Amino acid sequence: MSIDPSQLAALAAIVRHGSFEAAAAHLGVTSSAISQRMKALEERMGAALIYRGQPCTPTEAGTRLARHADDVALLESHVLRDLSPDPMQQAPRVRVAVNADSLATWFVPGLTQATGMLFDLVIDDQDTSTDWLLRGAVSAAVTGQAQAVSGCNCTPLGALRYIATASPAFFDIWFSKGVTAASLAAAPVMTFNAKDALQHRWITQQTGERLTPPAHQLPSTHAFVDAALAGLGWGLNPLPLVKTHLQRGALIELVSENPLDVELYWQTSRLMTDALAPLSRGIKAAAGSHLVKNTHAGVM
User: Fold this and answer.
1) Final residue of a domain: which of 21, 40, 66?
2) Which residues have C-beta within 8 Å of that of residue 169, sequence separation ≥ 6?
3) CA-based, 20 to 30 A from 127: which of 138, 166, 260, 267?
4) pTM reported for the whole predicted model
5) pLDDT confidence bin for 294, thresholds 50/70/90
6) Is 142 exposed, middle or buried (0-12, 13-18, 19+ CB in 10 A)?
7) Is residue 299 situated within a structural domain?
8) Which domain holds residue 30?
9) Which CATH number characterizes residue 86's domain?
10) Does 134 map to a domain?
11) pLDDT digits (tens, 9 = 90+) for 72-88
């Protein structure tokens, strides 16, 4: 079953710009034309593709089809760049899932190496970012899963090192008698969101026990650091973000020389391997400069 390219373009524009009117302006057509294209596409697919609201958002089927539209545009751009270079050619869009801590520490320099692309980043935990690949909602993802998702290539990147940190004042209040199972069970901890299991992994690594301390929820990488500095709680912070604070004593390590290394992997749609090659090279180079050596050396 073939799909009308103009209908795909209309869907992608609505998803990207949030309304039929904005999509029409982007494509240089009337809002009526966008509505007609969407009606025809939804009838062809036999499913609703857009939730009509403020803003308009895609259904699960719409998300997958919009990503397909972006992939088609990227593949066409890749071919045309080789056959008929055009500096005025519109840059293709690539949707990528990445965890917030990677975005805040090492990921952006990798994006700058892939010129001629526009990026739509989805923020999700590294342990669940593969779900976006499974749903066909992204073309690539930074994941914590070494096993390649079906239809994808998987390359180890290295490990992002986390340090359990707290302010000296907080440490004196809660850990003056040592970092033990009892003190860790009582001291307020910070978590990123409900998916964040890093602190609990570190607690188990340290004590051998599964504890449920009182927890703050702070869904911001930089707020995590700020909250630790302010003495709100303790938490695992990426070493690149707290190294200076540790050196000047504004933060201290809960347990000396006991980091948590989170191994990361770059997974890309196998069909998009060639078109995504510049991006993949940039991500691997950035990871090589900022992450610690990964213990798993294979490529899947």
Assistant:
1) 66
2) 231
3) 166
4) 0.79
5) low
6) buried
7) no
8) 5-66
9) 3.40.190.10
10) yes
11) 777 777 665 665 555 55
Output DSSP code: residue 208.
S
pLDDT of residue 299: 39
Domain count, the chain: 3
Q: Are residues 131 and 279 in the same domain?
A: yes
Give the tokens for residue 280: 């993949």
Residue that finishes a domain, picked among 66, 94, 109: 66
Q: How far is CA 168 from CA 44, 129, 238, 252, in A?
A: 63, 35, 18, 6
The sign one gets for the Cα dihedral 176, 179, 182, 184 is: positive
Structure tokens at 138: 């992204």
Distances (CA, A) of 180 to 148, 168, 173, 184: 38, 17, 14, 6
pLDDT in tens, 262-280: 999 999 988 888 889 999 9
Residue 224: per-residue pLDDT? 96
Q: Is 187 among the domain residues?
A: yes
Domain identity same for 186 and 240: yes
**How far is residue 29's CA from residue 6's CA, in Å, rounded to a whole number?**
11
Tokens of 202: 């570190």
